[in-house]
């Protein structure tokens, strides 16, 4: 949602509308072939969600009030409320998290 808004000009609701299609594509074209990969790189860091909170809280609160059937995504809103906020300036420029929040030290 952050990357879509910042780099693709999509509203958060538009990103939510794409959820089923993205999930279908992942289940159809990625998951069945993952076992063929020689390596799998997991780039998740436990602090990510706390960093994303600063970028998403207002959007999630707005969607919670306005997006049809948001209750389907209610766990996201609840989890977001329980997170401590981590400042984005603590994320190194070489972190993959920067792909979403901006400020990457990598050239594209």
Helices and strands in order, then pairings?
Elements: H1 2-8, H2 12-17, H3 19-30, H4 48-66, H5 74-82, H6 98-101
Biggest pleated-sheet summary: none
Instruction: List low-confidence stretches.
Output: none
Strand content: under 5%
**Structural class by SSE content:** mainly alpha
Q: What is the CA-based Rg, rounded? A: 15 Å
- Helix share of residues? 40-55%
- Alpha-carbon distance between the two ends: 20 Å
Average residue-wise pLDDT: 92
Provide an overview of this structure:
It is built from six helices and no strands. The radius of gyration is 15 Å and the shape is globular. The protein has helices at 2-8, 12-17, 19-30, 48-66, 74-82, 98-101. It has 108 residues and is mainly alpha-helical. It has a domain at 45-108. Helix 4 packs across helix 5 (74-82). The longest helix has 19 residues, at 48-66.
Describe the structure concisely for a colleague.
The chain has 108 residues and is an all-alpha fold. Helices cover 53% and strands 0% of the residues. It has a domain at 45-108.
List the main descriptive attributes of the protein structure presented here.
108 residues; mainly alpha
